[in-house]
Amino acid sequence: MPKNRKLDRPVILGIVGDSAAGKSTLTAGIANVLGADRVATICTDDYHAYDRKERAANGLSALDPRCNHVDILEQHIRLLRDGHPILKPIYNHSTGTLDRPEYVEPKEYIILEGLLGYSTRAMRDCYDVKVYLEPEEDLRVAWKIHRDTTKRGYTEEQVIKQLEHRVHDSEHFIRPQRTFADMVVSFYRPEGQGEETGAKLNVRHTLRPTLPHPDLTPIVEGSKHGIRLELARDTDGKPVDVLDISGEVDDRRAMAMEDLVWNLIPEASHLRDNLGRFTDVNNTQATSHPLALSQLLITYHLVKAALGHYAV
Amino acid sequence: MPKNRKLDRPVILGIVGDSAAGKSTLTAGIANVLGADRVATICTDDYHAYDRKERAANGLSALDPRCNHVDILEQHIRLLRDGHPILKPIYNHSTGTLDRPEYVEPKEYIILEGLLGYSTRAMRDCYDVKVYLEPEEDLRVAWKIHRDTTKRGYTEEQVIKQLEHRVHDSEHFIRPQRTFADMVVSFYRPEGQGEETGAKLNVRHTLRPTLPHPDLTPIVEGSKHGIRLELARDTDGKPVDVLDISGEVDDRRAMAMEDLVWNLIPEASHLRDNLGRFTDVNNTQATSHPLALSQLLITYHLVKAALGHYAV
User: Fold this and answer.
1) Per the confidence metrics, is the pTM higher than 0.80?
2) Does the beta carbon of A7 lie under 8 angstroms from any beta carbon of chain B?
3) Contact check, Cβ <8 Å, B69/A103
4) CA distances from B282 to B138, B151, B285, B290 (A)
5) Is the CB of A103 less than 8 angstroms away from the CB of B79?
6) B3 inside domain
7) Is residue B4 part of a domain?
8) Does ipTM exceed 0.95?
9) Which residues from B are below 8 Å from A100, CB to CB?
10) Cβ–Cβ below 8 Å for B72 and A86
11) What is the per-residue pLDDT for A57?
């Protein structure tokens, strides 16, 4: 077992959200912080029961649990959590086909990202940290059109049509999972700006008391700009902390928050260099304080879980 | 639970043997006796880790455990035994490719047939009945050439070359599994005859005391022809019963043995009509006493296991 690790099984992070909510980007970012060789990534899309043609024929969307081997996904999470390998199915997003499965061994950390990761109780019980991604809807639509037309071989018209067809399934199957997350992470544009991606987006974290979040009061006290923490009621009326980080936050304040959180997990200080990089739409490396601090807060919980602090 | 069934999990039959030993034919026959809707069939070839091209490149034969996801096979048998579904990989024998996996639910009976079914202790512990198929070697070679050239797209030359290449792996990985079987079933030709398939083959059952075999003494006593039972030493020196059934056994004697065994499992008498049919090389339905009686002896144990007689 690596030093500073107490938990004798993989730490499991869930990243759930609607199509093009930014799951893969966040997953890649977190995996990069932890070190790719220590992380196994599972995408729940791989558990589609039907290929693209079959879905077109039977009229089911990929968001519908009936369109997915949810029981097998559940079984595989449990197996990985118990330290066993799995033979993971593969859904090929480029071709829309189901390909030969791949052998996956559990690693120190497992990130499970996808549409339906919190859809059953047995599944939810497996996670150490549950994140739900909920970007501003216009932003998600823009991201989806960009991705599906450039990487998945759809036309813009097809994507827009698909979005319309999926409204029902999205509301019924995806969004209800928000309530099970320890953290809801929402990227959104500064008011009045059309900026779609990149460094200037703000982020809002809705922090539920289901995890012991780090005490950020020292750096947010008395602050009016950049980073704000407020007690609030969530959309369901439940009490939550709401953390707002502006894309315009100055480097000094962002660094102060980074320092504060890293100092709470000195065991993981060597990971600090890997934080906050992402590849923007122009395929250039960029950094963003809201993204870096979001990755950091999630990493904080993963490190704490690995140290056994959240073990029952 | 169906009537007359006591065991609260699937009954698992193993049928192991070298390539073209007749595993699929026996599996299909037994499934036919029990009723196809009550049987799930798993072929261990589906757990190949490499497709045909990759095997040609890496020089491993399909008989080599390193060429197979043995740990996943083990996991899947255990899951099915515990009543859980699996997402089973698929090896396509026609194309030599690994295809999209299929969802398999456990049924009352599970037949696991293939090259490596008894290769680990954890796997062996899952079976209720373990059969090893060991036809006369010349017969197996003839069967293999016939099948691989007609159904798997190989030339006769390729098959012969493959057989030569596989001698080592066959000796090291397949044949050692014989020792774990409750029954070794060997079809062989009548002396001096070239008959390769069909009704006139004899069969020899080597019956190990690891299962309580039915008492056949009433029908074999004093008999010199057709059906013989003898106490013998197995190739490893261990005491066994050897049951020989001639392809030339007359209908009356064969029927007497059928009656005797069916009377020991009255709960399954409705299955009797399904016994002993097979499709011969000319794709015509045929019956053979040695085949029918072999199927019956195996069915006997499966029914007894389902009734809970072999439960610990």
Assistant:
1) yes
2) no
3) yes
4) 20, 14, 9, 19
5) no
6) no
7) no
8) no
9) 51, 89, 97-100
10) yes
11) 96
Looking at residue A158, its amino acid is Q
Q: Which residues contact B298 (CB under 8 A, 6 or more apart)?
A: B13, B26, B30, B129, B131, B183
Chain A segment 37-56 residues within 8 A of B by beta carbon are 49, 51
CA nearest to B42, candidates B105, B131, B122 = B105
pLDDT tens digits, A67-115? 999 999 999 999 999 999 999 999 999 999 999 999 999 999 999 999 9
Alpha-carbon gap: A166 to the closest alpha carbon of chain B (Å): 26
> What is the rounded CA–CA span in Å between residue B12 and residue B20?
22
- The token pair at B267 is 């709960």
Mutation choice for A interface testing from B72, B79, B80, B87 by most A CBs within 10 A: B87
Number of domains in chain B: 1
- For B:64-93, CB contacts with A below 8 A are 69, 71-72, 75, 79, 84-87, 89
**Is residue B265 in some structural domain?**
yes
Question: CB of A234 within 8 A of CB of A245?
Answer: no
pLDDT tier at A220, thresholds 50, 70, 90: confident
pLDDT score of B100: 97
Query: What does the pLDDT look like over A132-163, one tens digit per residue?
Result: 999 999 999 999 999 999 988 899 999 999 89
If you measure CA to CA, which chain B residue comes closest to A102? Answer: B49
Q: In whole angstroms, what is the distance from residue B258 CA to residue B261 CA? A: 5
Distance from the A131 Cα atom to the nearest Cα atom in chain B, whole angstroms: 27
Give the tens place of pLDDT for each residue, B243-298: 999 999 988 899 999 999 999 999 998 888 777 655 555 555 567 889 999 999 99
Q: Which residue of B has its CA nearest to A92?
A: B100
Expressed as residue numbers, the domain containing A244 is 11-307
Is B100 close to A103, i.e. CB distance below 8 A?
no
Check which CATH number belongs to the domain holding B18 and give it.
3.40.50.300
Residue B49 located in a structural domain: yes
A101 touches B at CB < 8 Å:
yes
